[in-house]
Request: fold
Amino acid sequence: MTPVATLDAVEVDYPRRGRALGPFRLSVAAGEIMALVGPSGCGKSTALRLLAGLEPPTRGTVVRAAGRGETAVVFQAPTLAPWLTAQANVALPLELSGTPRAEARARAAEALARVGLAGAEQARPAQLSGGMAMRVSLARALVTGPRLLLLDEPFAALDEITRRALADDVLKLWSETRPAIVFVTHSVEEATYMADRVVVITRGPGRIAGEVAVTGVLPRPPGFRTTPGFREAAEAVSTLLARGAEAAA
Amino acid sequence: MKRLADALAPLALIALLLGAWEAACRLTGVPAYFLPPPSAVAKALVSDPIPLIQASWNTLSVALVALVIASLAAQAIALIVALSPILERAIRPLASTLQVTPVVAIAPLVIIWAGIDHAERAVVALAVLVAFFPIFSGAVTGLKAADPDLERLFALYGATRLQTVLRLRLPSAVPFLLEGHKVGAGLAIIGAVVAEFSAGSGGVRGLAWRILDAGNKLQTARMIAALVVLGLMGVALHALLGRLERAGLAWWRGR
Reply:
């Protein structure tokens, strides 16, 4: 099966900051959930922007099978337009690509219902809690039915309980349409819980320290965090992280 | 109780100062052409109200017309500049130069261009010039103040440049535009008054003309009365626009 997106021998240099990432090779298969884990400043967000096509690599090639409108990004902050209602925010990607307004609004209402926000269509971002705003952001990402969903530390600003609930929600939403998901996190626990493949990145400039396959069904059954499979995978990820930090030091 | 005290405090101070002024005038017996007592100013305010109202309206209407023209021009130019970075680079130094040049210095030139018979046009043009810049720089700043991640999303969803300006950058600029208009309105009044002074006692019979006219006749109470009206007008306009700004922000933010 052809991958949804591939980074081949990519390197990214930033002016004044020097090398941020690479050389780096990564292939995202259709329908898989991949976590990128690494210390702060290791270039994992840069890798995500490469996958999104938001910036080009300095060297190497990026191949993206997902076309325009088939890639969606969720950032660390909800990134909603404060002057628009939740529904108009979610409808935005559709309206920008030319979907008639009425249809876009109807699909946006559906997407909001899927993330558990039916009834909040007319609310403005300022009236929503952090978790709710993040759900709106998620609905906006899902409304186009993307093949590739990229999440850049999406829950980092939320409290533990909200994070866990949202992790389960993302997995449930994934099971409905099965887009490939790549998400960036610095939480070993979150990576192991949500992904079937955890890619560990070394300290910057980021290279791949190794990867860990997590066995177990997705979405996760209750109590998954206490299973030996989860704990072993988390332990393996932690070991790789520590080794990656040493290697670069 | 505290709110009542807060509201009364400035009034009490004004009353106190007016009382001291009145008392000082009566006790020392300064001539009225030098410093008239507040009671004489009050008399000048109410004794002949129609010309005073007429003059206030002349100044206010010039300021409002100037504000509307400045607003339209500033936003249009800012939008064009937002669409083309090279145009912005071209316009910036010119705009800054014009902005730092005092309006009194430009006034004689504009009055010549407008023609002696059309001093009111010169006054409007000068007020426009003064009110233009806060709105323009607010608009330019605001059009660049969009959330960079939202800009990335627009790029990701293939938005055209026009879509990005109309649906992202223009709405993002609203708070800056509101602030710019508030400042611009205050400056429009100042601009109108300064321009009236420059136009002299000939053409435009606004508040500044009244101050000049009364000054020439040494009718000091009438001068101060016109100043009082000018001050009140500025305060009222500022309060009105402050309220509009708050309402606009609440609407924009949704709370």
About this structure: Chain B touches chain A through 21 residues (CB under 8 Å). The CA atoms of residues 95 and 212 of chain B lie 32 Å apart. The radius of gyration of chain B is 23 Å.
